[in-house]
Amino acid sequence: MTRADEIAANLDAVRRRIAAACDAAGRAGDDVRLVVVTKFFPASDVRILAGLGVTDVGENRHQEAAAKAAECADLDVRWHFVGGLQSNKAAAVASYADVVESVDRAKLVPGLSRGAHERSHEIDVLLQVSLDPPGREGRAGADPDELDALAAAVETAGGLRLRGLMAVAPLGEDPAAAFARLARIRAQFLESRPCADVLSAGMSGDLEHAIRHGATHVRVGSAVLGPRPRIK
User: Are 62 and 69 in contact (CB under 8 A)?
Assistant: First the structure.
């Protein structure tokens, strides 16, 4: 089996999972967009994915993402930056990312805005919200009560377009419960910002739970590309 055959088979299986989850949730099959996370995988895999109809590719390490985006500049794909972002790298990430999903503090906004202006390209922004219980150190993300202020910072900055929220289920917690909590946070957020209706949630192991609770985008890596290569 060639690498292209392997990816095609895995991609078909994931697309079937998404379709089944949408059906179970009473949602249309095209309600959910797949973002394939290519961390540690080569640009050649991105080319295979594009040939199979994948339009959204995710990366979470700036140096790798920048190099891969440059190598694949001829492809018609949207680059999503989904990893933790340092404020001193924000402008550089804005130079290639079409969507930044991991904005969890206002300190990132000026750099993203500057990079968007330098590129003359508006960037879609998702606010990463933490689903961890108060006081427990876990995944990245803003506290839910910080979202309004963070959203306002994005809305008043030039070159950025607030599109919605992103979250990761906490380690060791039932993802169904975590995503149910996320759905409540999102509902409250949408009361004041009804157009910011994107919800990026769910990965290879829990995408069905995320779709059940309203995810519009799922970020899938290993289920499509296989186990990540070991990086020496």
Answer: no
Contact at 8 Å (CB) between 141 and 167?
A: yes
Query: In which residue are the tokens 């946070």 written?
Result: 185
Is residue 18 within 8 A of residue 218, CB to CB? The reply is yes
Q: What is the 3-state secondary structure (H, E, C) of 129-171?
A: ECCCCCCCCCCCCECHHHHHHHHHHHHHCCCEEEEEEECCCCC
What are the start-end ranges of the H helices in the chain? 3-24, 43-51, 62-71, 90-94, 109-119, 147-156, 175-192, 207-212, 222-225
Q: What is the pLDDT along the chain (232 residues), one digit of tens a residue?
A: 899 999 999 999 999 999 999 999 999 989 999 999 999 999 999 999 999 999 999 999 999 999 999 999 999 999 999 999 999 999 999 999 999 999 999 999 999 999 999 999 999 999 999 998 766 665 679 999 999 999 999 999 999 999 999 999 998 889 999 999 999 999 999 999 999 999 999 999 999 999 999 999 999 999 999 998 765 5
The pTM (predicted TM-score) of the whole model is: 0.96
Q: Which of 201, 194, 116, 115 is nearest to 151 (CA)?
A: 194
What is the CA 110 to chain-centroid distance, rounded? Answer: 20
- Retrieve residue 23's tokens: 């059906």
Between the alpha carbon of residue 126 and those of residues 51, 129, 139, 203, the distances in Å are 27, 9, 16, 16
Using an 8 Å Cβ cutoff, are 69 and 96 in contact?
A: yes
- Residue bearing tokens 């990430």: 93
